[in-house]
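Reminder to self: tokens first, then the designed residues, so the page reads top to bottom the way the pipeline ran.
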């Protein structure tokens, strides 16, 4: 039957279009032999291949592509196709009939497709309604509706199904694709949008069936059925059903109201702009976050950084789960329209109006599409996946570091790209297995798309951009491996503090399974695909290596791939080599892989391709990973093979520019990577003798060029990059120089640089100072490299242990004079270059800011070492210069000291960077939120964290600022007016910004903190605090401060900067092997694993919390109790000092001490008591302990007041179980046992235990504390309420309503455990008396009557049996809470109140005569 739609009528029929889409070019006699008969590699040839199973996917899929496409039998009478166009030739008719015969023959051997039976709504009824309405033109109004306005079906009102006059002429298949985004949420979850992964309830099926029947009824039939039902039911039942239906509809409508409005707005925007602009708008909305919102988000993240990841992980899981239903177009944008009305197996060319991809694909559908038998569909799916990953990474990069997508933004339908990234890499999508299988495809287009997809998933481009900038930083240290890691669990021996050792998400031993016993028959079948998938779910990159991606990539390189395929393949190898030492070792051990790459590099030497640049980068990364790899490259002459371009002499700048812009850019990038490879070899002590040859060839890049020509050709950045890398390589050569004043000869086996080359290099370097404008970013990197070259050179001239030098070489004053003459500093009173660098740091983009900080760091070092050398020369040189020589102004400045004359300028720089560090440490601390693997199962760029996380330029800039600040604090001389409060606060912030390769920053910070003047200032702050808290102690002496400095510095370095020791692989080994330290020569890369940095927020509490660190590499024998006790005493002094210091900070200054949760501070005080009473027995430590308790009690009162002002509900502030450890109840039980055994009722000890009974503490901890005190018979040892921490109100209010705790109170009461507590006035008796009386005699109606009656009966029975509890019962019945105005005075209740209380007691007796007698006995005692 022909279609009535004119758009389809002018072409071909539906059947013809379907057959042409599945046309197979087979002869009739060959059709039967090909069905399931194609045999490919990996398919067993034993027996015939079983026929393919029917598929319901929207594309033909087979278990293996050799099975061919699926055919279904032709319907009866369809052997001959009837053409709608009569102008077709007879040849076309015969060809079509011949094709139909081929299908007929082939279909006899294929089973028909079995469609799933839809139990829900049948859409076929819509077709009849629409067709009937279309034929009845006379009864159709201008705007056609299915029912009249007067008798409209209520179910139609819910659906909102209205058809315009244009919609009436559309085919039913197109109507099925109508946008249903405005449906309520409850209705969309029915069979209209049923997911195969979600079970359908019986209620949903019944509702769908009812709706289908209503849609098939006419309005008069509906009215008749309604009247019939009304006659059969009573009016009361009808009203009840109506109310229930209205309430249900209101709930559904309210649940979907906000979402419907947002979707409708998005659809209107889509109609106006088109789908390509929608996603950009969404990205812009994500990027446009006000600074206030960002700071609030950071505050939340920093405050929650120490909390348990349970609730955070649950919300994160919900965000990731929501990505399951998102549909993506080919360009990676979200398809907002809902196409779920069309089943997946029915999404063909006709039903989708000529665009089957318009509905988009979910991630799971795209992964499934990669199994299609059609190569074009496989390539399409891989490109779609790559685009989605690129889109997610781009949007994650645009976010601010540490920010998170808020719930209100999710409600506004903003795309949660972090969740998209995590879902794509998650184990459910099985993307890693899909990509590995597609890499073995026999179609080149599919292989290219697969390689590009892997390159996108591994974040190759973003990672290389980050490393490209970080390698320009001369003092940045070693490169970092990118493998995902997670923190180990807190341990009781370390006080349950966070900040454990980092550990790889996947065990490195499982990277190459059965590598040692591949030929063993017993282990041959133990390696399964399931093991690979589980391993890949923990670590994506390692999973690819385990699945054998390296041999496959080698095969691709050996088959002469295209330039694009070769570049992408080597980029993947670079990402794998950067992953971990094990992955880099796997690349090296893969047979012929490195050799093939070097051969590909040397094959075509006439032109430079991007793949050649990637090849040199790969060798550089492999050499950084292990010194043995570098030695092997030199042994096999790989280094010479890939660096021969460096030896090509360029006579002038004009000759280089003649190559053209593109060739110059490629040659610059290649030379930069070659120079970096050379620098790595120099750091290992190799290739130092290559300098003379390279100097003559690269002398052009060491002198300032004509900047106008480079700017005109847009090649300034390329030229400057080469110059920067050459000076950085020379800086590395300076480390190999022999001692300048030493007479010792160097051994022949050791390569060293010669001092004879230093003079010419200094002459070339100082020329850049007078070359003109250095404000451009590329030139800033050159200036930074030159400054760090000079500073490394000055360090070799001036050893640290030298007290004087006999003479100075000529190049030293030359460097200082050129700095003064060219206005680098404001020694002459003019505006200096250093001021301009500070402006660039404050106002420029991220890379320029990093470059300016590097320049400031290098310049500060040069000035510091110059002044020191000149001072030493004055001491060592005995003969003074002749008076006839008149010194210039520059020479006088150099003689008096550059730092001294520019002190105000350096002080201004110090003030600027103190503010920077103050705001940046919060960003670094906000990143580490989740537990294992972070937000995503981790790859390269920030492991999926917002803004790039630890791998972002923002964090790199924060670490550079902290490094410069610490260096400035070290070199700038202190005076009496030095503001130590700002210095201490800034140093604490710098420690929180440091990363794994910034151990030097923390060591210098600790050296600054633990100096006698700093500790004296902290002691001064303590004295001010004691006056406020009315606690006075003794004075400390000079030797006490020195002891504090040595003890605390040693503790913090051993506690946080140590590396984890590894056990020996030998079975009977008694000695443990330690990990290789950072300063070893075996590797030039660092691992995140096996170390603790970045530090947690509460790192300064470790002296109080560390009992014994048994995993530290520096400790072979456990310390004794006296040593631990001394560390705790020093830690108490330091903690009180920084607490007192933070209280006098200026308003608006962020303090790391204040940002640590009160939970951790109280917990650390409790840990100090686990080793015994030694802390409290020492007089000085006891005073400090008491002062800290009072300070934290005041903070608890303030937090309670602030929380009560924000919310009326009682909030648990002290969440020990959530913030510290899930099993905190066990810790409290241990503490209570220690308290009962050793304290003898010590006031401070009891006060510390009693804080766990505070109403702000979690219920589980309060209950565990009470039970532990009850079991230890220590309730009477607790101090009175007025001597506990904080105020009385915090223990008494709000009223206790937890059944378990109230039962515990009554149990203690009736067992006699509170008898002595009542006599001694213990806080335990006060709490039980107050909360039981407040619960049983409430002033409100919201009370659990059954619980109240049970508790009262227990107390009355106890009163009847124990005469000694008469006083306690009288106190109970007469209890009246003291007023806030007079807390010490407690008034008696009025007679009316007493009458009400006795009536309540009588009511609780439930008519029990025995208990009623006891009530009357109590009444007589009161009267």
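Designed residues (1423 positions):
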């Amino acid at each position: 039957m022909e279609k009535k739609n004119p758009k389809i009528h002018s072409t071909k029929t539906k059947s013809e279009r379907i057959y042409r889409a599945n046309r197979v070019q087979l002869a009739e006699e060959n059709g039967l032999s090909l069905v399931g008969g194609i045999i490919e590699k990996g398919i067993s040839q034993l027996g015939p291949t079983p026929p393919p199973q029917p598929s319901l996917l929207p594309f033909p899929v087979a278990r293996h592509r050799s099975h061919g496409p699926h055919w279904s039998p032709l319907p009866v009478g369809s052997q001959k196709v009837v053409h709608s166009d009569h102008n077709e030739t007879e040849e076309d008719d015969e060809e079509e009939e011949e094709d139909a015969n081929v299908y007929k023959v082939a279909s006899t051997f294929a089973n028909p497709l079995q469609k799933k039976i839809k139990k829900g709504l049948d859409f076929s009824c819509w077709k009849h309604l629409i067709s009937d309405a279309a034929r009845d033109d006379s009864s159709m109004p201008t705007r056609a509706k299915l029912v009249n306005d007067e008798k409209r079906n209520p179910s139609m009102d819910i659906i909102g199904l209205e058809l315009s006059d244009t919609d009436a002429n559309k085919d039913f298949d197109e109507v099925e694709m109508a946008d249903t985004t405005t449906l309520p949420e409850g209705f969309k979850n029915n069979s209209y949008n049923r997911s195969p992964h979600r079970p359908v309830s019986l209620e949903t099926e019944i509702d769908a069936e009812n709706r289908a029947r209503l849609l098939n009824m006419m309005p008069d039939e509906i009215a008749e059925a309604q009247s019939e039902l009304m006659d059969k039911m009573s009016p009361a039942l009808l009203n009840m059903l109506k109310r229930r239906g209205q309430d249900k509809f209101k709930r559904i409508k309210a649940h979907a109201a906000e979402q419907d409005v947002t979707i409708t707005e998005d659809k209107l925007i889509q109609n106006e702009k088109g789908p390509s602009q929608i996603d950009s708008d969404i990205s812009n909305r994500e990027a446009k976050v006000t600074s206030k919102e960002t700071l609030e988000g950071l505050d939340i993240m920093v405050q929650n950084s120490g909390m348990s990841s349970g609730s955070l992980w649950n919300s994160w899981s919900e965000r990731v789960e929501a990505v399951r239903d998102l549909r993506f177009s080919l360009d990676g944008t979200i398809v907002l329209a809902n196409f779920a009305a069309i089943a997946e197996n029915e999404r063909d060319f006709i039903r989708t109006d000529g665009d089957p991809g318009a509905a988009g694909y979910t991630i799971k559908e795209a992964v499934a599409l990669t199994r299609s038998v059609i190569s074009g569909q496989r390539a399409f799916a891989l490109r779609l996946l790559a685009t989605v990953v690129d889109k997610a990474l781009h949007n994650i990069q645009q976010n601010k570091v540490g920010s998170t997508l808020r719930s209100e933004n999710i409600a506004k339908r903003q795309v949660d790209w972090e969740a998209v990234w995590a879902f794509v890499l998650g184990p459910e999508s099985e993307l890693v297995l899909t990509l590995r299988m597609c890499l073995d495809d026999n179609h080149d287009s599919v292989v290219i798309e697969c390689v590009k997809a892997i390159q996108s998933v591994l974040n190759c481009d973003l990672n290389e951009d980050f490393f490209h900038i970080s390698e320009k930083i001369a003092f940045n240290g070693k490169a970092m491996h990118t493998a995902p890691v997670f923190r180990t669990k807190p341990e009781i021996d370390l006080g349950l503090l966070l900040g454990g050792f980092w550990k790889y998400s996947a065990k490195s031993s499982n990277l190459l399974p059965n590598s040692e016993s591949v030929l063993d028959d017993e282990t041959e079948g133990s390696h399964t695909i399931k093991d690979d998938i589980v391993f890949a779910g923990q670590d994506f990159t390692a999973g690819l290596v385990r699945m054998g991606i390296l041999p496959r990539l080698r095969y691709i390189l050996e088959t002469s791939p295209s330039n694009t395929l070769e570049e992408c393949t080597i980029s993947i190898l670079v990402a794998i080599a950067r992953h971990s030492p094990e992955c880099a070792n796997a690349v090296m051990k893969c047979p012929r892989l490195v050799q093939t790459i070097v051969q590909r590099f040397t094959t075509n030497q006439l032109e430079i391709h991007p793949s050649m640049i990637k090849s040199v980068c790969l060798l550089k990364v492999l050499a950084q990973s292990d010194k043995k790899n570098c030695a092997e490259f030199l042994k096999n002459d790989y280094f010479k093979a890939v660096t021969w371009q460096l030896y090509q002499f360029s006579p002038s700048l004009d000759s280089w520019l003649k190559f053209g812009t593109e060739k110059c850019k490629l040659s610059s990038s290649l030379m930069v990577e070659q120079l970096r490879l050379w620098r790595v070899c120099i750091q290992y002590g190799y290739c130092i003798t290559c300098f003379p040859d390279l100097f003559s060839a690269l002398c052009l890049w060491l002198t300032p060029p004509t900047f106008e020509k480079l700017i005109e050709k847009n090649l300034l950045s390329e030229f400057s990059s080469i110059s920067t890398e050459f000076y950085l390589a020379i800086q590395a050569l300076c480390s190999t120089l022999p001692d300048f004043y030493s007479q010792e000869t160097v051994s022949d086996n050791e390569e060293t640089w010669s001092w004879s080359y230093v003079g010419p290099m200094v002459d070339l370097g100082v020329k850049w100072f007078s070359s003109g404008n250095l404000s451009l970013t590329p030139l800033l990197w050159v200036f930074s490299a030159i400054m760090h070259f000079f500073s490394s050179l000055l360090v070799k001239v001036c050893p640290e242990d030298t007290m004087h030098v006999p003479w100075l070489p000529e190049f030293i004053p030359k460097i200082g004079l050129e700095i003064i003459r060219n206005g680098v500093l404001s020694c002459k009173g003019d505006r200096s270059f250093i001021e301009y660098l500070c402006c660039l740091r404050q106002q420029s983009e991220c890379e320029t800011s990093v470059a300016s900080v590097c320049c400031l760091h290098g310049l500060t070092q040069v000035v510091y070492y110059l002044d020191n050398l000149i001072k030493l020369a004055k001491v060592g040189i005995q003969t003074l210069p002749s008076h006839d020589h008149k010194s210039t102004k520059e020479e006088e400045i150099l003689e008096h000291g550059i730092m001294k004359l520019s002190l105000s300028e350096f002080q201004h720089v110090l003030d600027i960077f103190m503010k920077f560090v103050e705001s940046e440490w919060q960003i670094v601390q906000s990143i580490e939120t989740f537990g294992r693997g972070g937000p995503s199962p981790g790859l390269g760029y920030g492991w999926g964290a917002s803004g790039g996380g630890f791998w972002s330029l923002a964090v790199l800039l924060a670490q550079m600022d902290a490094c410069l600040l610490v260096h400035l604090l070290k070199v700038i001389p202190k005076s009496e007016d030095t503001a130590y409060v700002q210095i201490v606060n800034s140093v604490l912030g710098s420690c929180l910004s440091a990363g794994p390769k910034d151990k030097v920053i923390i060591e210098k910070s600790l050296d600054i903190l633990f100096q006698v003047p700093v500790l004296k200032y902290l002691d001064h702050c303590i004295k001010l605090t004691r006056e406020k808290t009315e606690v006075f102690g003794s004075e400390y002496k000079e030797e006490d401060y020195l002891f504090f400095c040595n003890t605390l510095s040693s503790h913090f370095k051993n506690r946080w900067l140590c590396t984890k020791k590894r056990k020996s692989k030998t079975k009977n080994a008694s000695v443990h092997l330690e990990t290789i330290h950072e300063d070893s020569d075996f590797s030039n890369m660092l691992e995140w694993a096996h170390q603790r940095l970045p530090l947690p927020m509460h790192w300064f509490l470790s002296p109080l919390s560390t009992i014994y660190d048994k995993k530290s590499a520096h400790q072979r024998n456990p310390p004794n109790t006296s040593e631990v006790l001394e560390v705790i005493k020093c830690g108490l002094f330091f903690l009180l000092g920084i607490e007192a210091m933070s209280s006098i900070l200026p308003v608006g200054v962020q303090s790391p001490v204040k940002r640590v949760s009160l939970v951790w501070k109280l917990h650390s005080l409790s840990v100090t008591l686990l080793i015994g009473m030694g802390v409290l027995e020492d007089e000085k430590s006891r005073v400090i302990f008491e002062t800290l308790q009072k300070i934290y009690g005041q903070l608890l009162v303030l937090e309670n007041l602030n929380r009560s002002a924000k919310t009326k509900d009682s909030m648990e502030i002290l969440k020990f179980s959530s913030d510290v450890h899930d099993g905190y109840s066990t810790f409290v039980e241990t503490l209570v046992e220690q308290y009962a055994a050793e304290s003898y009722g010590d006031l401070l000890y009891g006060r510390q235990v009693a804080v766990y009974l505070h109403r702000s503490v979690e219920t589980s901890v309060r209950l565990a504390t009470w039970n532990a005190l009850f079991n230890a018979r220590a309730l009477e040892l607790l101090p009175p309420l007025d001597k506990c921490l904080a105020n009385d109100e915090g223990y008494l209010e709000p009223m206790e309503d937890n059944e378990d705790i109230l039962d515990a109170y009554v149990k203690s009461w009736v067992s006699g455990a509170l008898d002595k507590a009542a006599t001694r006035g213990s806080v335990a008796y006060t709490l039980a008396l107050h909360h039981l009386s407040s619960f049983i005699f409430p002033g409100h109606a919201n009370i659990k009557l059954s619980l109240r009656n049970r508790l009262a009966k227990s107390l009355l029975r106890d009163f009847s049996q124990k005469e000694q509890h008469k006083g306690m019962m009288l106190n109970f019945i007469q209890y009246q809470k003291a007023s806030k105005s007079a807390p010490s005075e407690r008034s008696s209740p009025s007679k009316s109140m007493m009458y009400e209380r006795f009536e309540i007691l009588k009511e609780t007796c439930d008519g029990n005569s025995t208990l009623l007698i006891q009530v009357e006995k109590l009444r007589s005692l009161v009267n």
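The CA atoms of residues 679 and 729 lie 5 Å apart.
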